[in-house]
Amino acid sequence: MSAEIKNLSPKPVWDYFYNLTQIPRPTGHMEAVTRYVATFGKELGLETLQDEVGNVLIRKPATPGREGHKTVTLQSHLDMVPQKNSSVKHDFLTDPIDAYIDGDWVKARETTLGADNGIGAAFAMAVLADNTLQHGPIEALFTIDEEEGMDGAFGLKPNFLKGDILLNCDSEEEGELFVGCAGGADLNISFQFKEDTYIPEGDTAVKLSLTGLKGGHSGVDIHLGRANANKLIFRFIKEAVCDYGARLASIDGGSLRNAIPREAFAIITIPGDNVEALWELVSDYQDTFRSEYKGIEESIHFVAEMVDLPKTLVPEEIQDDLINAIEGCQNGVISMLSDFPGTVESSSNLAIVRTANELIEVKILVRSSSESRKYSVCSSLESVFALAGARVEYGGAYNGWEPNINSPILKLMKKTYQDLFGKEPSVKVMHAGLECGIIQGAYPQMDMISIGPDLQHPHSPDERVNIPSVERVWTFITEVLNRI
Predict the structure, then answer these.
(1) Residue 102: burial class (beta carbons within 10 Å; 0-12, 13-18, 19+)
(2) How far is CA 255 from CA 263, 298, 353, 354, 363, in A?
(3) Which of 159, 199, 367, 369 lies most in the core, judged by the most C-beta atoms within 10 Å?
(4) Catalytic residue IDs
């Protein structure tokens, strides 16, 4: 079971990470985990504060003789993305995460692991608890609700932090120093309608299930060309409607704005005479999807099954407008950064499409390192859905983090990494959103870097963190603190 990870090295880091896996902490449910961290700080006898929104700050005095050194703020977020495979029973509000060792990796059994960003919090806690380290003044900031809205970072008030340097521990590639990140904005789209109660005699109801996609983090993994379950299922539905007389009763695709949708489910009706042809069409589409995503997606499953007739349908006009809008919606990488080759500049993630109570909701997360490009992409998507008669609202916008290539902490960390590991680290800009940009707004003079261990497939049940890289990052952090 998950306690085996406590035997890994460095032991304090894995001990604290294990403790975090035992505390349910999806975004929006922070009370237990913030209480745990605050109690931890107080039991160490350290100054422990909690601000109005719930962020926890713990201060550790400098090693004697280093009181005049710069103050370092170690920063991580406490919430995690609650994603699981539909086949597993797991309640993220009550159940602990079942982590286990798989070779050089720690994973969870069919759920997200929460190493994003529990491993960053564990690094900070291990630093606070270790009295053998040499360092100047340290404070550790544990923010809340980063994954949906970055509420903790937005809630920070000036003068709460004392740090001159921010060391964010929320990036996901060891050996890389991140100096900037993209900003983002949500598009919340809705179609209101009055349900159609007429279902022609002889029609049959079919449930479509598209599963087995990899999904992943819509910032970190968006460039990998993974399939979007919402785009694929609507591609099928369009043909089923146009050529087989299908009607849409309900759709439920994706679950989180910042996760590439792995699954989508729809209920359609179809004339009974066309059922056999529909089975063949489903099989053909499964083959097509597998062929198109060969080498990227290994486990695409697209199946149909007979179900009871629904009581209502989405009106035909609304159905057709929705299909056309989803088909026309830009999804995935839109532009690349010229200054940082291989880094995505702008993207969109068609994250959620679902029906409920005479309402269709569509949620899209747009990311961009360019503010002007971000709003251009948002405007383009707004036009597509406005033409379809939908209501489009913006929300959750946040700025990116502007790179500073002349940063003093960047220079120090590059040399430290070279000295420790005999190679120069890469300096990169991340397409995913980090809290650094928001914190920079409240603390513009703070020098910032983001680091982390090798963490793959965050925001999906395939999430895993590399054990040797955790040890290297621990060595790196402690030596950086010694040199500042």
Answers:
(1) exposed
(2) 9, 21, 9, 9, 10
(3) 367
(4) 79, 146
Q: Which residues pair with 209 in a beta bridge?
A: 265, 303
Give the DSSP letter of residue 455: E
Cα–Cα distance list, 6 to 9, 467, 471 (Å) = 8, 12, 13
Question: Residue 80: beta bridge partners?
Answer: 26
Question: CB-hemisphere CA count at 13 Å for 451?
Answer: 28
pLDDT reported for residue 1: 52
CA angle 476, 75, 131 (to 5 degrees): 55
Which position has the token pair 């996901």?
172
Cβ contact 430:447 at 8 Å: no
Sign of the torsion formed by the C-alpha atoms of 353, 354, 359 and 363: negative
Closest CA to 184 of 445, 471, 435, 9: 435
* DSSP bridge pairs for 448: 166
Separation CA 262–CA 215 (nearest Å): 5
| Contact residues for 71 (Cβ-Cβ < 8 A; gap 6+) | 136, 137, 138, 139, 162, 163, 164, 165
Closest CA to 79 of 1, 161, 152: 152
Determine phi and psi for 476, rounding to 5 degrees.
Answer: -65, -50
Q: What does each C-alpha distance from 181 to 65, 174, 210, 217 come to in angstroms?
A: 36, 17, 32, 14
Instruction: Please write down the long-range contacts of 87-91, taking CB distance under 8 Å and 24 or more positions apart.
Output: 91/24
pLDDT at 319: 98
**DSSP secondary structure letter of residue 299:** -
Q: Contact at 8 Å (CB) between 268 and 248?
A: yes
Residue 123 CB partners (closer than 8 Å, separation 6+): 13, 74, 76, 169, 473, 474, 477
Dist CA 192 CA 370 (whole Å)? 33
In this structure, the strands spanning 183-192 and 247-253 are unpaired
Q: Which residues of the chain have pLDDT under 70?
A: 1-2
Contact indicator for 18, 5 with CB cutoff of 8 Å: yes
237 φ, ψ to 5°?
-60, -35
Closest CA to 262 of 292, 233, 241: 233
Alpha carbon 328 to chain centroid, angstroms:
24
Start-to-end CA span in the chain (Å): 39
Residue 423 burial by CB count (10 A; 0-12/13-18/19+): exposed, middle or buried? exposed
How far is Cα 424 from Cα 346, in angstroms, rounded to an integer?
28
Ordered alpha helix ranges (H), 311-433: 316-328, 371-387, 408-421
